[in-house]
Specification:
This protein has 690 residues and is an alpha/beta fold. The chain is built from 19 helices and 29 strands. The chain folds into four domains: 179 residues, 3-Layer(aba) Sandwich (Aspartate Aminotransferase, domain 2); 119 residues, Aspartate Aminotransferase, domain 1 (Alpha-Beta Complex); 160 residues, Ribonuclease Z/Hydroxyacylglutathione hydrolase-like (Metallo-beta-lactamase, Chain A); 105 residues, 3-Layer(aba) Sandwich (Oxidized Rhodanese, domain 1). Strand 28, helix 18 and strand 29 form a beta-alpha-beta unit. Helix 2 crosses helix 7. The structure holds pyridoxal-5'-phosphate.
Length: 690
């Protein structure tokens, strides 16, 4: 059962059923080679010719060339190669030719990469120059006016894949004409196909690449338009197919499918109208505004394709939004290149001058032309569901949450992290080593649960927590005197530690946090349960240090978990044991058998609570979990639970699961390292099990 709401149409689209049928027909019945002279070949050639004629009419190719190829990346190579070969020829003849390869700052990476590659390979010696865009993502025409006279080639996409922003092609054409430049002009039309009117031969555009899979044709089929008279050099030489312009036996299944899509576009009876698409986007935007207060749209709707929304939510990272949407089976993409460790800011949004939080926190929602009313309705319901899940988890600080957060929380589990010690009963908390990037998150948690922050402490001297203190407002007494580590100067409690030293401590609920010197300019904090006026080593559950590798003899025992704030090795936390066995991974095909033979095994979902809450069932479809309930222990809470599991029966199997198998792997590794040999991870995660 596919319960997915696919809102990633700018990445790729499903194949139109009629197009899939046409491809199947080509593979099954009309499998001939269109170059063959016999009947079987001719039956295939008819399909090829019809698809091309349709494309020629639809795109207004006029007397230009229109060749089929493997997709836009190939089309871009052919265009760049053609232009640069012409440049080299002019250079060789001693004729004047521009020195710049100008490309829009928001182009798809295929464009600058192809320009750099062919420029180097052909030894053209031109200089790549990014053309800036304005705050709306549109090309800076004044800058183009300056660059155009010295340009050999200008590349400006028709519509952007991240934002859907539509370029002012008439404006660009006007600047190029007025400058009298001989520059060749490529317009990447990938995102424009089917969404913008194109009449290519009536324009000055020299090259226009297209890609089938962005508009309901399969992957691996594309087209390139070349204006009549524009320089052309084939990229692929061989049997002379495509009238010698692109050799290689044609991808007939792809061409047949693309032909069906183009014919549907031409008829205008298959895809929703522009007005309908605008209506769908408006509904999604309203749902986002309602579910995620503070949502900011990164694309101006009146200047972008009606099928694209790009937005950010204050205090919620793109990774968290991706995770919650994915749990709800709403497939979107991070507007930026989201690496496993950190959300890198989007170069497209950076070029528009957006602040870092909007660029690094961006989510792109885009729908294909096959979207319908029911899909949008379900998408809106699930967006509301995601908003509720985030709010319940205290991720959105629009109102105090009814459910207070309690215990130890680790914020950021990749390389660097902050720790929050939360006590629901007293509604108070202590922050340890807050990272500047987490100011908004910490503030949201504190405000959302209406906590009083007792202290913001650091493991190293001279840490500046001014921004967080300011953001916390009335929840933190920033005027109270502290030492250089943020430790309150007027701490009332004094405790005797396991080594006999007497130190200052802060009470937080039933626990205490004591501070100890951990070398030159460094502090460690011990969290545990006091015994009268002392904190013996075996009552210290957690020790917070900068690197988590500090031995604190007599102050802690082997059962104390060492919690680093600079976790370069991604350990989450450290303990006495080091070896990690190889049999850590279970795959979805062996999970059921494993659970059958281990009736006491516990399934633990380490996704964050908002993902767990937003999950659209069945999360573990196809996996016989018996009557076992799946326990939710988010990775940010793992360390606290680890401390309990390690003090309990360490032979009870713990099977960790998450979305992709990445976080569960970390959890299982961490537990194994700490001395829980029965810890396992479900490889591939719920994404493969569901
Ligand atoms: N140009 C743009 C604007 C795109 O969105 C894409 C697809 O990601 C490409 C080029 C590359 O297209 P293809 O996947 O057909 O190589």
């Amino acid at each position: 059962m596919n319960n997915d709401i696919y809102l990633d149409g700018n990445a790729t689209t499903c194949v139109l059923p009629a197009a899939a049928l046409a491809a199947a027909d080509i593979m099954g019945q009309r499998y001939g080679n269109p170059s063959s002279a016999h009947g079987t070949g001719l039956r295939a050639k008819v399909v090829l010719d019809q698809a091309r004629q349709c494309a020629v009419r639809l795109l207004g190719v006029g007397d230009g060339r229109l060749m089929f190829n493997s997709g836009a990346t190939e089309g871009i190579q052919t265009a760049v190669l053609s232009a640069l070969v012409a440049v080299r020829e002019r250079q060789a003849r001693g004729e004047p030719v521009g020195k710049l390869l100008v490309y829009g700052a928001t182009e798809h990476k295929a464009v600058p990469e192809a320009l750099a590659h062919w420029n180097r390979l052909l030894g053209a010696g031109l200089t790549l120059t990014a053309l800036p865009v304005d705050a709306d993502g549109r090309h800076d025409l004044a800058a183009l006016r300056t660059l155009a006279p010295d340009a050999a080639m200008v590349c400006t996409m028709a519509a952007n894949n991240e934002t859907g922003v539509i370029s002012d092609l008439d404006g660009i054409a006007g600047v190029l004409a007025a400058s009298g430049t001989g520059a060749l002009w490529m317009v990447d039309c990938v995102q424009a196909l089917g969404k913008l009117e194109l009449n290519l031969a009536a324009t000055r555009i020299d090259y226009a690449p297209f890609s089938g899979h962005k508009l309901h044709a399969p992957k691996g089929i594309g087209m390139l338009y070349v204006r009549a008279g524009a320089p052309f050099t084939p990229l692929v030489m061989g049997g002379g197919q495509e009238t010698g312009q692109r050799s290689g036996t044609e991808n007939m299944a792809g061409i047949a499918a693309l032909g069906v899509v183009l014919a549907a576009l031409e008829r205008g009876d298959t895809f929703p109208s522009h007005a309908q698409l605008h209506g769908y986007r408006a509904r999604l935007a309203d749902a986002l505004r309602a579910a995620l207060p503070g949502t900011v749209f990164n694309n101006a709707f009146d200047k972008s394709l009606p099928t694209t929304l790009n937005f950010a939510v204050p205090g919620v990272s793109s990774r968290e939004l991706m995770d919650v949407f994915d749990a709800a089976r709403v497939r979107v993409s991070a507007g930026s290149a989201c690496s496993a460790s950190k959300a890198a800011p989007s170069y497209v949004l950076d070029a528009m001058g957006l602040p870092l939080w909007r660029s690094a926190g961006a989510i792109r929602m885009s729908f294909g032309a096959m979207v319908d009313d029911a899909t949008i309705a379900t998408a809106c319901e699930r967006i509301a569901h995601c908003g509720a899940a985030l709010r319940a988890a205290g991720m959105i600080a629009d109102q105090p949450s009814a459910e207070p957060d309690d215990g130890l929380r680790q914020l950021g589990t990749e390389g660097e992290c902050s720790w929050l010690v939360l006590d629901a009963a007293s509604r108070s908390c202590i922050v340890i080593d807050p990272l500047p990037a987490q100011t908004a998150r910490i503030t949201a948690i504190v405000r959302g649960h209406n906590y009083r922050v007792q202290a913001i402490v650091a493991t190293t001297a001279h840490a500046d927590h001014g921004a967080l203190a300011h953001a916390l407002g009335a929840h933190f007494d920033a005027a109270a005197p502290t030492d250089g580590y943020g430790w309150p100067a007027l701490t009332a409690h004094r405790l005797v530690l396991g080594n006999g030293a007497e130190v200052a401590a802060i009470a937080i609920g039933s626990q205490v946090l004591a501070q100890v010197t951990a070398g030159e300019g460094a502090r460690a904090y011990l969290l545990g349960i006091k015994d009268g006026a002392s904190l013996p080593a075996d009552m210290v559950r957690f020790a917070f240090t900068a690197h988590g590798d500090l031995a604190l003899p007599a102050l802690t025992t082997g059962q104390t978990l060492l919690c680093p704030t600079r976790d370069a090795r991604n350990l989450l936390c450290a303990g006495p044991l080091a070896a990690v066995a190889a049999d850590l991974q279970l795959d979805s095909s062996t999970l059921a058998a494993f659970l059958d033979s281990h009736p006491d095994a516990v399934l633990i979902d380490v996704r964050e609570p908002y993902e767990f809450a937003a999950t659209v069932p069945p999360a573990l479809a196809g996996v016989a979990t018996g009557n076992r309930a799946v326990q939710s222990v988010p990775l940010s809470r793992l360390v606290e639970h680890a401390s309990l599991w390690l003090r309990g029966n360490t032979h009870q199997p713990l099977v960790f699961v998450c979305r992709s198998g990445n976080r569960s792997m970390k959890a299982a590794q961490c537990l194994r390292r700490l001395g829980h040999p029965g810890s396992y991870s479900l490889a591939g995660g719920l994404a493969l099990a569901a």
